[in-house]
């Protein structure tokens, strides 16, 4: 398995995803103490992140645990997805699009059940890279070493040939421990420079 490779995170890298405060607004609307949604829904969010529940089951649990009717559940989940999807990092996406054909390109994302359909529809990441490895589809997320192994396997590349880009430091450390090169995303300029250096270093 050979070939220079760049593997990207989505949220905070390809997507700009600031917190919107939607959870707190729902708690205020429902008269619930701050932190109630996280307390009641935490295990469901974790299950959705590794695909052990379906979207339908998530909706059912939101209704049951927060006492919401069907229209409220739809509105609640709409707010969840609005924050999750954020807005596209257009400058960086355009740069990555220009890399196609010069290296192997992939995505490794800690995700939530339903993410592939929504991100493909909104941003066409499935057309940007060769392979997208979602935690909810493989049953394990970063920083578990198995997530990095799955990404390399999907792209048929060696870890040492890969540069991994993420905005979370613990994931950067885990990627390096898995044998990859890695760069902590802080802004487009430095990240683009790091990718260019990675490609220039290729024999």
TrEMBL record:
Family matches, as InterPro entries: HAD-like_sf, HAD-SF_hydro_IA, HAD_sf, PGP-like_dom2
PANTHER family, A to Z: ALPHA-D-GLUCOSE 1-PHOSPHATE PHOSPHATASE, FLAVIN MONONUCLEOTIDE HYDROLASE 1, CHLOROPLATIC
Protein name: HAD family phosphatase
UniProt organism field: Streptomyces roseicoloratus
């Amino acid at each position: 398995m050979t070939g220079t490779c760049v593997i990207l995170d989505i949220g905070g890298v390809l997507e700009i995803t600031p917190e919107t405060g939607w959870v707190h607004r729902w708690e205020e609307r429902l008269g619930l103490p701050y932190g109630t949604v996280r307390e009641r829904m935490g295990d469901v969010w974790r299950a959705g992140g590794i695909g052990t529940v379906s979207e339908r089951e998530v909706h059912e649990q939101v209704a049951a645990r927060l006492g919401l009717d069907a229209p409220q559940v739809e509105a609640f989940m709409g707010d969840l997805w609005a924050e999750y999807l954020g807005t596209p990092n257009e400058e960086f996406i355009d740069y990555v699009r220009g890399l196609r054909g010069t290296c192997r390109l992939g995505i490794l994302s800690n995700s939530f059940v339903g993410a592939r359909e929504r991100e493909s529809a909104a941003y066409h990441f499935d057309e940007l890279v060769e392979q997208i490895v979602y935690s909810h589809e493989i049953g394990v997320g970063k920083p578990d070493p198995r997530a990095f192994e799955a990404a390399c396997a999907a792209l048929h590349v060696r870890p040492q040939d890969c540069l991994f880009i993420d905005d979370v430091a613990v994931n950067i450390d885990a990627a390096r421990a898995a044998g990859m090169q890695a760069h902590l995303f802080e802004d487009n300029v430095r990240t683009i420079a790091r990718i260019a250096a990675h490609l220039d270093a290729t024999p």
